[in-house]
Structures are given as structure tokens and as C-alpha cells.
């Protein structure tokens, strides 16, 4: 297939359309504005619908409604906008409604800055809304990965009847790279995907088969709600098979970098530079940050590893807590951090590695 040169946000939107997304509702916020702008142009071309809601809350509520009909639906925002959507995302998780959303994250907390950051890690992986629900969270390190993950996210969402998040920082959302786009699903395939949801979807008329729209009296009593939560816990446990991670030059590494997203991409270039200088450095890059690839840290040779260096664009560090669970106190953990819209530099990583190496 041919390669095309696209901005990250626009590539995400095109991948969603090709995956069969036919409804998008959103609200402007930097640095994700190109996603709704692209959908506004593109969805009418394939018989889909775009709505700019009057707010983030309204937009995610529209997604709740559209996705409830079995239509592949998506929304997006940036950081503080995602916070406003969290209630609607919780509703989708509770009602087992599949939807996909993207967070093109920026600095914080609060409104923060419009520049890139990785300060939404806790929100994405630990508390995307009330009630303790969990989601698959995919963290691309390139525009191509953002395309591939978005395309696949719709399958995950429909398979699990659960929200799926593309956690994508502002660097990847706004940079341009050549990408190979996935095949466009035909209208027949899109229709078949929707038909496959008929046993639970709300389609607005009396059915000749059981449908989840008909709620039995007492269904949401305490005992039933616990049963629903237990079923959800079993679903979350099943995601172990979906864990994705990149392990780069870890086998003989005396220092291992742990990073995700754009920080991992910058870290990988630092590994290559340092290897050229004879310093044995490796990289563990979680591709799914939920579920987290804890087992990858068992592959570190702790007999020679001096330390694991957590690299992230967040102060205080957040990603490091999952790194600590993976390392299990088998070696020291150091940090290399920036935040608030400052982008991690390769020089800062190299300096941190050399400092560890000298000790």
C-alpha cells in the first residue's frame, strides 16, 4: 500500500473512518482540534454524522446515545476536556457500550498549557471515571502506531463492549509523518458490524428477540450490581492476552530505560547514541499501558543492571508507580522528568544515564 504524509490527529480520524466509525461528537480544544475538523469534512463523504456539541459533556452524551444503537462511535479531547467527559465514559462502561476516544494530552493540572505533556497517566490508567472501571489504554509512539491502534481499538471496544482509549500526547497529535493507512471497510462490512450488535443495541422498536433495552424490575439492586462488577473484573483479567510491549536491547543492559509514548521514542534514540559510546542501555516501552506489561521487567538481568531510569513528561512522576510494581525492588529506580509543556530531550536522558553509569 502507498504511504501518505499526514498529521497525527488527522491520521487518527482517517483510521477511525476506515475502521467503520460513522459518528463523531466533540468540542474544540488544543491540541486535538484537527480530529473534529477532519471528521467534519470526512464523515459526510461516507454517510456518517459529525456533531460539534455545545460542550464536552454534551458531546460524550451524544456518543453514549449513538454507540447505544450499535454504531461505531468516537470522541476526542485534550486533558481537561477529557475530565469533563469522564462521567459519560463511566456511563458507557457501566452500560457496556463500546466507544473509542482519544486524549491528545497537554500540560496540567487544571487548564494547564496547550503544549504536550504526559500528566494524564493516572487519569487514563487508574481513574478514568467513578466506580473503578477499567479500559484498554493504547499509547502510540509514532503517527503510524496511532493509526494502527485507532483502527484496532474499535475491534477491542466491540469485542468487550467497553470504552477504549488512545492516549496520545500533543507531540504525536501535531507532528507529521508518512503512514500506511489500513484498508477502508466497505459499507457492507460496516453494516455487518452494526448488525452483530443487535442483541444488545437500542434500535427504537419492539424486537422479536431478547434485548438489553428491556430492563427487568430490580435489575439494578445491590446483588445484581455486584454480579455486573464481577463480570467486569473477569473481562479485565482476560486482557492479559492483549498486552503489548517493546523490549529493546534489554538482554545485556546495565541500565534500562522505562518510558511510553513520545518519551519512549526519544529514549530509544538515546539508547542508540549511548550504545555507540559503549554504554549498555536498554529500553522497555509499554505499548498497552492498561493492561500494563509488568512481566517485561522480569526479563531485566538484575545481576548486572545498575538501575532502571523512568523517563516521563510528568512532575510529579506517575508512570513510575507501574514501573515500581514491575521492578519489585530488584534494583534502584531513578527518574528523568519534565512537565507543563516542556518536551523531553535526548540530551537530558543521556545526561541522566551517564550520571547513573558513573556511580
TrEMBL record:
Annotated keywords: Oxidoreductase
Listed GO MF terms: oxidoreductase activity
Keyword presence, Thylakoid: no
The gene coding this protein: vorB
Entry superkingdom: Bacteria
Organism of origin: Clostridium thailandense
Cited NCBIfam families: PRK07119.1 (NF005507)
Domain named Pyruvate:ferredoxin oxidoreductase core: residues: 253-347
Pfam family, one: PFOR_II
Protein name per Swiss-Prot or TrEMBL: 3-methyl-2-oxobutanoate dehydrogenase subunit VorB
Pyruvate flavodoxin/ferredoxin oxidoreductase pyrimidine binding domain sequence ranges: 14-226
Amino acid at each position: 500500500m502507498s504511504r501518505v504524509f499526514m498529521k497525527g490527529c488527522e491520521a487518527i480520524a482517517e483510521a477511525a473512518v476506515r475502521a467503520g466509525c460513522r459518528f463523531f461528537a466533540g468540542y474544540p480544544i488544543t491540541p486535538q482540534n484537527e480530529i473534529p475538523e477532519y471528521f467534519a469534512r470526512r464523515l459526510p463523504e461516507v454517510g456518517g454524522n459529525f456533531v460539534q456539541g455545545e460542550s464536552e459533556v454534551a458531546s460524550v452524551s451524544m456518543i453514549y446515545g449513538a454507540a447505544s444503537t450499535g454504531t461505531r462511535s468516537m470522541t476526542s479531547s485534550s486533558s481537561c476536556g477529557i475530565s469533563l467527559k469522564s462521567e459519560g465514559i463511566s456511563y458507557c462502561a457501566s452500560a457496556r457500550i463500546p466507544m473509542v476516544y482519544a486524549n491528545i494530552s497537554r500540560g496540567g493540572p487544571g487548564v494547564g498549557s496547550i503544549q504536550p505533556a504526559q500528566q494524564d497517566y493516572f487519569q487514563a490508567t487508574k481513574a478514568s471515571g467513578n466506580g473503578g472501571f477499567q479500559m484498554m489504554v493504547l499509547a502510540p509512539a509514532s503517527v503510524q502506531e496511532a493509526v494502527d491502534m485507532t483502527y484496532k481499538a474499535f475491534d477491542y471496544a466491540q469485542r468487550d463492549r467497553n470504552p477504549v482509549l488512545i492516549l496520545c500526547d500533543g507531540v504525536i497529535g501535531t507532528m507529521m509523518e508518512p503512514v500506511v493507512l489500513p484498508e477502508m471497510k466497505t459499507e457492507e462490512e460496516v453494516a455487518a458490524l452494526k448488525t452483530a450488535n443487535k442483541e444488545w443495541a437500542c434500535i427504537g422498536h419492539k424486537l422479536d428477540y431478547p434485548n438489553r433495552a428491556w430492563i427487568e424490575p430490580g435489575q439494578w439492586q445491590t446483588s445484581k450490581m455486584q454480579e455486573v462488577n464481577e463480570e467486569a473484573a473477569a473481562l479485565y483479567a482476560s486482557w492479559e492476552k492483549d498486552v503489548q510491549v517493546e523490549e529493546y536491547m534489554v538482554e545485556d543492559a546495565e541500565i534500562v530505560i522505562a518510558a511510553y509514548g513520545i518519551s519512549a521514542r526519544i529514549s530509544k534514540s538515546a539508547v542508540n547514541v549511548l550504545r555507540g559510546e559503549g554504554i549498555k542501555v536498554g529500553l522497555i516501552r509499554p505499548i498497552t499501558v492498561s493492561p500494563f506489561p509488568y512481566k517485561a521487567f522480569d526479563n531485566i538481568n538484575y545481576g548486572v543492571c545498575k538501575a532502571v531510569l523512568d523517563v516521563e513528561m510528568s512532575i510529579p512522576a506517575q508512570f513510575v508507580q507501574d514501573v515500581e510494581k514491575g521492578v519489585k525492588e530488584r534494583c534502584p529506580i531513578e527518574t528523568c522528568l519534565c512537565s507543563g509543556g516542556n518536551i523531553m530531550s535526548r540530551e537530558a536522558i543521556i545526561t541522566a544515564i551517564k550520571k547513573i553509569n558513573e556511580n
